[in-house]
Amino acid sequence: MAIQLSEEAVKHVKELKRAQNLPEDVFLRMGVKGGGCSGLSYLLEFDNELRPQDKQFEIDGVKVVCDAKSYLYLNSTTLDYVKQGLQAGFAFVNPNAKSSCGCGSSFSA
C-alpha cells in the first residue's frame, strides 16, 4: 500500500501552497513523532529537504514525503480534509491506529 490523500486534501494542500507562495520544490511531509495524549503524534508540514530514507509519493500533483520510520505507522493512511460546522482541518484516517485521542492529533499503535 501507500499513503493516500483524499480529493479535498489535495485541493487544500494546493491552495495552501499557492496562498503561501511556496516554490515548486516544496512538498508535503507527513510523519509521526513521540508525544501527544495517546503516545504518538502526527506531523504535517511543508518541507524542501529530502533525507536519504524518505519515501516519496505523487498524488494528483501533490508530492508527499514520509521518513521510513514514520511510514511503518502511516502505511495505508489517508489524509483527508474535513469541514464540520465552523471547524475545518486535516484528518488522518489511519487503519494502523489501535486508538486515538478525542482531538485526532495523536494515536497509539
N- to C-terminal distance:
18 Å
Sum up the overall morphology in one term: globular
* Strand line-up of the largest beta sheet: 4-5-2-3-9-8
Class inferred from helices and paired strands: alpha+beta
Residue windows where pLDDT falls under 50 for at least 5 positions:
none
Task: Give me the count of strands.
Answer: 9
Summarize this structure briefly:
This protein has 109 residues and is α+β, with helices and mostly antiparallel strands. It has helices at 7-19, 68-74, and strands at residues 4-5, 27-34, 40-47, 55-59, 62-66, 78-84, 87-93, 99-100, 106-108.
Which characteristics define this entry?
single chain; 109 residues; alpha+beta; Hypothetical Protein Aq_1857, Chain: A; six-stranded mixed β-sheet; globular
Describe, in plain words, how this protein is organized in 3D.
By secondary structure, the protein is α+β, with helices and mostly antiparallel strands. It has one domain: HesB-like domain (Hypothetical Protein Aq_1857, Chain: A, Sandwich), CATH 2.60.300.12. 18% of the residues lie in helices and 43% in strands. It is built from two helices and nine strands. The protein has helices at residues 7-19, 68-74, and strands at residues 4-5, 27-34, 40-47, 55-59, 62-66, 78-84, 87-93, 99-100, 106-108. The strands form two sheets. The protein has a six-stranded mixed beta sheet. The chain has a three-stranded mixed beta sheet with strand order 1-6-7. A hairpin with a 2-residue loop joins strand 4 and strand 5 (62-66). The radius of gyration is 14 Å and the shape is globular. The two termini are 18 Å apart. The model has no long low-confidence stretch (mean pLDDT 87).
